[in-house]
Amino acid sequence: MEKTSKGRVKVGIYLCAILMMGVIAVSSNIANIIGAFPEANQTTVITYLISIPCLIVIPMTIITGKLMGSIPKKTLMLIGVLLWLAGGVVPFFMDSLNMILVMRIVFGIGLGMVQSLCAALVVENFENPNERGKIMGNMTAFQMLGAIIFSLVAGNLGTISWNVAFLVHLMAIISLIATIVCIPYKKPEKVTETGEKVKFKPTGMMWVWCIAFFVYMIAGQTYSNSASSIITELKLGGSAAAGYSLALFALGGLIMGFIFGKILSACKRMTLTVGCFLLAASYLIMTFAPNLALSYVGAFVCGLAFSICMPCILTGAGSSVDQASSEMATSIATCLQNAGMAVCPYIVTPAGAALAVSAGGKLIPNQWSMIFAVIVVVILAIVFMIINMRNKKAA
């Protein structure tokens, strides 16, 4: 592929990646939406707007991985972005929470397709592992950029009216144009040069990477579930302060995404281990921060850690199988990423509550949840440290 063509493909991938955290686009406007539907409780509104789309993403990543074997990725990305756009914007015209739920399901389908396809397009168009890793890092940066833009724009639109915030999803028009102009049209290779059908061939190491993503996100999602609550419960700040924490998290992820290639070159096989230890450090900072400023430092460092670990795991999963199987490998990894996010509150929250009781109430449950997540991510770091040391010794 020529240099100019590669550059165009990168632009297309990056401008689609800004949609990958789109599920949080209206999260800053949740309170206004709850007020618009007094007959529904807070849990129902959050479930309809946030939880359901996240659950839909899980099977869609696998389905999309299957579809890539017979439908060009450009076609699938066009469909995914259009579903994302329609599912996001149409609720602006609705006054029924049940109809909004239907559109959020459509939105979840589109989101699942976009998440799978962004990673698969990197794997398909860039074979060099170092280049692939750098692009995965940049992709994460644009993902975080999208999170910042969505949070700020939707928050301001929500001050006009609860439904106006949904218009933030019009940003997908940029992604739609980028898909049409920049993403190459390639027909899937159904057969090999010998005439045999291309089959998915998973490897043991692929499953290690995919399970690692599941475990990592159980710990990683704890930031969203517990960090903001710690700020308010310890009276370090109010809900606005918690919102700034999310913005600083995304800023950290944005910055690290752009310099990830240099981190990868410096740390090589140990990059994921470094990222995991950095995440653990950020959690400890936020858990024991005596003031809001230090809590913000922890959130920023947390964003840095995320943009190290996520591209590492996706690149590892895609590179641990042959080229023909790499697309499905990244889809499975993305599926387990979302599964880890979904089960996080059912594992980490009870663990935090149990530790709080056993410790005699010295820390609040959300602080113990963060500490439990630290234990999980440190174990993951040690496991990959051992794997890399053995691989280095074998080599």
How would you describe the overall organization of this protein?
The protein has 395 residues and is an all-alpha fold. It has 2 domains: 1-185, Growth Hormone, Chain: A, CATH 1.20.1250; 198-395, Growth Hormone, Chain: A (Up-down Bundle), CATH 1.20.1250.20. 77% of the residues lie in helices and 0% in strands. It is built from 14 helices and no strands. The protein has helices spanning 3-17, 30-36, 42-67, 73-89, 97-125, 129-157, 172-182, 204-220, 222-233, 239-267, 271-288, 292-319, 323-358, 365-394. The relative contact order is 0.14. The mean pLDDT is 85.
Overall geometric form? globular
Radius of gyration: 21 Å
CATH topology term of the largest domain: Growth Hormone, Chain: A
Helix-strand topology string: HHHHHHHHHHHHHH
Which structural class fits the helix and strand makeup? mainly alpha
End-to-end Cα distance, whole Å, is 31 Å
Low-confidence segments, ≥5 residues, pLDDT <50? none
Whole-number mean pLDDT: 85
What is the share of helical residues? over 70%
CATH level-4 homologous superfamily of the largest domain: MFS general substrate transporter like domains
Count of DSSP helices? 14
Total domains: 2
CATH class of the largest domain: Mainly Alpha
The counted number of beta strands is 0
CATH architecture grouping of the largest domain: Up-down Bundle
Query: Could you describe the largest sheet, including whether it forms a barrel?
Result: none
Strand content: under 5%
Keywords: Cell membrane, Membrane, Transmembrane, Transmembrane helix, Transport
Membrane topology: Multi-pass membrane protein
Main location: membrane
Domain Major facilitator superfamily (MFS) profile: 1-393
